[in-house]
Amino acid sequence: MSRAARAVRPVLVGLAALLLAGVLWELVKVVVPDTGLHLGEASVLPRTDDVAMPHVWDVAARMLEPETGASGAPSVLVATLHAAWFTLGVSLVGWALGVVGGMVLAVLMQRWSLAESAVLPWVVLSQTVPLVALAPLVVGWGGRLQLGAFAWERWMSVALIASYLAFFPVAVGALRGLKSPTDAQVELFRASAAGWGRTLLSLRLPAAVPHLLPALRLAAATAVVGAIVAEVSTGTRGGIGRLIISYAQAASGDPAKPWAAIVGAAALGLLAAGVVGLLGAGLRRYRHAEVS
Amino acid sequence: MTRTPRAALRLTAAGLGLALALTACSSGGGDAEPAASGSGGEGGLTPVKLQLQWFTQAQFAGYYAALEQGFYEDAGLDVEIVEGGVDIVPQTELANGAVDYAIAWVPKALASREQGAGITDVAQIFQRSGTLQVSFADAGIDSAADLAGKKVGNWGFGNEFELFAGMTAAGLDPATDVTLVQQQFDMNALLSGEIDAAQAMTYNEYAQVLEAENPETGELYRPEDFSVVDWNEEGTAMLQDAIWANSERLASDEEYQETTVAFIKASIQGWVFARDEAEAARDLVVAAGSQLGNSHQLWQVNEVNKLIWPSPDGIGTIDEDLWDQTVEVALTAKNDQGATVITAEPDAEAYTNEYVEQALAELEAEGVDVTGEGFQPLTVTLEAGGA
């Protein structure tokens, strides 16, 4: 395959996936009755009328129309892009925090098995705390934090919550990766009088890359989800989570509007994972066998 | 005891750490004043944080008007309006010291009080309840009694008690005589016929159904297509948006007491502005970043005005009868889980007219109409999608 074709292919695949999603959406609208599918009293599939599931082209058209009737209101697309940009920034901060936190934990757990048996259960436990319970608490702490000229802002709470989700896959993935060198490899380093630090840098970290890359991608996706949920939960202005809820208030009269923002949120998740994928390109040397 | 240099160093470090921690506590959290501490802030203004229940919208038009029109500044306050979110509980933010004042519904705030939140209702801005139960006119649901055998939507989370009290008062057992359905933010379930009667606020969800297209006519639904049950008429209405203050600081902090009067006064000026200049109030709410449409926001200003005006005793005054009715419903109405809002009568600290009376006296002396006896609501035409 030529180089150009190789570069174009993922774009084409992405477009095809988008098209497929649209076709599936319309197919569901055609096949499932307007009132949805019920088994007895229980609803199995949701309503598919134009209010609950507007046509794909209506959503696309709505994106180009102004957000509100106010003069100077941006189009829904522009508003969505703005919000997505904001959320992307917050998620990246959260992701970076999560990656650093996760890596530090993984190195600690690899170094001392006591730390592993002490910390790992807590790491797993941390992910069972419902985010919606945590978010108002974090905002509450943040609201009272003031260190000199530095004032805690609400987006920082959102980033913190995003990092709380993002650190988990990194910690677990990195730990597996750091432990992946075989005994023979470790013993070779020991026989060469390499200390723990040298072994970490030259053996364990490179060996961890194949485990780490999927973890980083997963962390990017969860950071975006975490940021969106935290925005919804705390009402942080500017982000896409808040935008979806704002638009959803008009869902009965203007059903395409919230869907336009939801499409934006989905695109954001893909973009974040894609950006992290670029990181993988930079670490190609170590990616002999990526583990997922 | 032998004191090596190392031990001394350790002690010093520990002492330093402790001191730092204490400083952090006293400057940051706990029951210390978060914002309104002394005459700091820009140009001698007292910084004040106000927590709303939801995003910027005309439900809070008076506060935004007071901010934009400079009423807060004239009163010596530097007010920051903090928007709410899905999981932000204003009265909790107030009780834990993150903000200075909060807007909250009385029954929800009373429930928080019972769980230990030290908060006091200092101005009852909304004098009426804005909650309706909306159904299609042909469903024949014109009173709470007509809900028998119907599918009844409600939001839960403490928003359902007027409905349950209304049904109980009409002789229905909410657990067996109706089918209860958890409702979403939007009104799609009602419009699609999935539920027979939906919970709606006059200023928000009710407008949403009037902004939706009627598939039979191809035009927007009209008010005559619907029938509403109004809890004010059924006698189970509960008081809603009120300004709540921190009880502990009210009791001990004179400066906070003065700030409270000034804050209530300027907020009332904002609400008077929203009454007299509804369209200007709408514009400044839109400018403050609301993503709801123009006609929807004007509708909301107008409906909120109807909940406030006329206020025969003066806006913000807590009407004892309505307060007692709220407490009565909160004590007796059981929801489908058999829970009541509160289990015991709230103590005397739950509300006070002391500060709002001072604010009203000052405003009356300045010739401001604080009762709105002659208030005439606008007729607002809603556009599709509220645009």
Describe the protein in words.
The complex is a heterodimer of chains A (292) and B (387). In chain A, helix 5 crosses helix 6, helix 8 packs parallel to helix 9 and helix 9 packs antiparallel against helix 10. In chain A, a hairpin with a 2-residue loop joins strand 1 and strand 2. In chain A, 39% of the residues are buried. Chain A has 2 domains: 53 residues; 232 residues, MetI-like (MetI-like fold, Orthogonal Bundle), CATH 1.10.3720.10. Chain A contains 10 helices and 4 strands, in the order H-E-E-H-H-H-H-E-E-H-H-H-H-H. Chain B is α/β, with parallel strands linked by helices and 387 residues long. Chain B has 2 domains: 235 residues, Periplasmic binding protein-like II (D-Maltodextrin-Binding Protein, domain 2, 3-Layer(aba) Sandwich); 104 residues, Periplasmic binding protein-like II (D-Maltodextrin-Binding Protein, domain 2, 3-Layer(aba) Sandwich), CATH 3.40.190. Helix content of chain B is 40%, strand content 13%. Chain B has 15 helices and 10 strands. In chain B, helix 11 packs across helix 12. The longest helix of chain B has 24 residues. Chain B is globular and about 60 Å long. The N terminus of chain B is likely disordered. The interface between A and B is large, with 42 and 49 residues.
What is the topological layout?
The complex is a heterodimer of chains A (292) and B (387).
Chain A: H1 3-31, E1 37-39, E2 42-45, H2 56-64, H3 76-111, H4 113-126, H5 131-143, E3 146-147, E4 150-151, H6 154-178, H7 183-191, H8 196-234, H9 240-248, H10 256-282
Antiparallel strand pairs in A: 1-2, 3-4
Helix pairs in contact in A: 2-10, 3-4, 3-6, 3-8, 3-10, 4-6, 5-6, 5-8, 6-8, 8-9, 8-10, 9-10
Chain B: H1 5-28, E1 46-51, H2 61-68, H3 71-74, E2 77-82, H4 90-95, E3 101-104, H5 106-114, E4 119-123, E5 131-136, E6 151-154, H6 161-169, E7 179-182, H7 188-191, E8 197-201, H8 205-210, E9 226-230, H9 231-234, E10 242-246, H10 247-252, H11 254-276, H12 278-287, H13 294-308, H14 320-332, H15 354-365
Parallel strand pairs in B: 1-2, 1-3, 6-7
Antiparallel strand pairs in B: 3-10, 4-10, 5-8, 5-9
Transmembrane segments (chain A): 7-25, 83-108, 120-143, 155-175, 208-230, 259-283
Domain ABC transmembrane type-1 (chain A): 84-280
GO cellular component, one term (chain A): plasma membrane
